Amino acid sequence: MRAGPCAQNLTCVQSIRKPIYDDPDAAPPASSTSSTPNSSSTFIPSATESSPKSSSPTPTDRLATEVKRTRLFLHRHAVSAEDSLNSLLTSAFKLENSFTQTIASLAPPRDSNEQLLPGVIYVLVSAMAGSIITRRSNILLRFSVPLAAGITAGNVFLPITTRNVGQLIWSYEERFPVVADTHRSVQERTERFWETGKAHSAMTLAMAQDKIKEGKDAVEDWVKKGR
User: Fold this and answer.
1) pLDDT (tens digit, 9 = 90+) per residue, 166-175?
2) Which residues, in sequence order, are CB contacts of 155 under 8 Å at separation 6+?
């Protein structure tokens, strides 16, 4: 059964009619897009633009610079002090080694019969005796006689040790040509003086022996004539 024209018109009128509970003055709901601000149109200042550039460093930067400078200064001086200490210790060890080797080289070999303890005492006693003998003489004799007595006693009682000491002294004197030349000239004069003294002593001894022989012969002749 088909509906009449009136029924169709009633349906159209009902679909067009607004509901009675709607508020005609109410504004349409705001869309989410219209409520949120446009990011492209909103200006947000950056951190660099908000804070002005500072021409001088901050106190923190200055403190960090001073701390760095102080640490470098302390490190440099600590390294320098460590190098100086290492050099000093190395020099001390070398000096100690050289000293021990030098002292060991002066001692006589074990297969020799030379003994240091009584020999050194004899040398010291001889030098002291020369000093006592010349205590009232001039300064030249007071210096030379004990030295000569000690050297002579050393050559007699400690010949090997005395020779080693002389070679050591000569090795140090060779570093200074003036001292070496002076020592050489003094040694040559001393040797000439010693050889001349020995020759004169031999001549004096021979003359004394001749005189003794002549006196002995004269006494014998006198005894023979007295008989």
Assistant:
1) 888 888 888 8
2) 162
